[in-house]
Amino acid sequence: MNRFAIVRIGAYVACAGILGAVSVPAQAGMITVSYTVDDGGNNTNPLNGLSALATFETSGNQLNILLKNTSTGKPAGIGTAGSLLVSLGMNLPTGVTILSGNTAVVGPGSVGLGQWSSKAAGSSVAEEWAWTNAGGGDLLAPYKQVITTSTGNQQLTRFGGGAANINGPFGGIAAKPVLANIPGSQRAVSNSIQFVITLSGGLTDNQLSDLANGSIVEYGSDARYLRVPEPASVAILGLGAAALGFRRRRTA
């Protein structure tokens, strides 16, 4: 790799670090987004470090999603269930649907908590996670495809097949370290779950980017929703930096 390529990559990484939640395409067929923008819910206290991250990767008609709870704090008034990441809402391109939810497993470096304390990375948590093409409940209603452990969503199919009978926001994803004590009677994972789903068609890079950047996550049962920052806000920040640089050059 030549010196100019290294400089460009270094500048790109530095910008991503400054902007924090900007989506970063890692390679063709893969994109990672951070959820940091408040999008509603029944708790209106400051976010206090609530955040999440998802990596979407395609291989043919398969979509691999690694969903993480990256929270460093939680809003006041949110208890254990409310601090768990329990749903991902997204919209596949017109004509593309989920054909099957292949697997839902504990993510790399994560462990099971509560009733799932015996689970390690790679262990299935399919009994508490389901998917749908029929839209979600509450603020997930505009999203056609939802992966969830929360009740109130429509026509859910459990990962691995069969009608879902999930028990609410107790099969969620906790932050690492855990921000709230997980009682032994609850099921949770710290700090990521990996999903593999089969789609009815493949996605282009642009479609994958639109899917990821337009997605949303839910904490608890309608407790809080977070989305990805608008690309326009990044453009405005970039314009502001350029303008400042121009003024500095003129007054130097």
> How does the overall form come out from the CA principal axes?
globular
Determine Rg (CA atoms, Å): 19 Å
Cα distance spanning the termini: 35 Å
Count of β-strands: 16
Beta content = 25-35%
The strands making up the biggest β-sheet line up spatially as 3-16-15-6-10-9-11
Please, how many helices?
Answer: 3
Look at the structure and give the mean pLDDT. Answer: 83
How many structural domains in the coordinates? 1
The oligomeric state is single chain
**Helix coverage percent:** 10-25%
Largest sheet: 7 strands, antiparallel
Low-confidence stretches: 1-22, 24-28, 232-252
Output the structural class. alpha+beta
Describe this structure in words.
There is one protein chain. The protein is α+β, with helices and mostly antiparallel strands and 252 residues long. The protein has one domain (27-231). 19% of the residues lie in helices and 32% in strands. The protein has 3 helices and 16 strands. A 7-stranded antiparallel beta sheet has the order 3-16-15-6-10-9-11, with helices on one face. Strands 1-2-4-5-14-7 form a 6-stranded antiparallel beta sheet, covered by helices on one side.
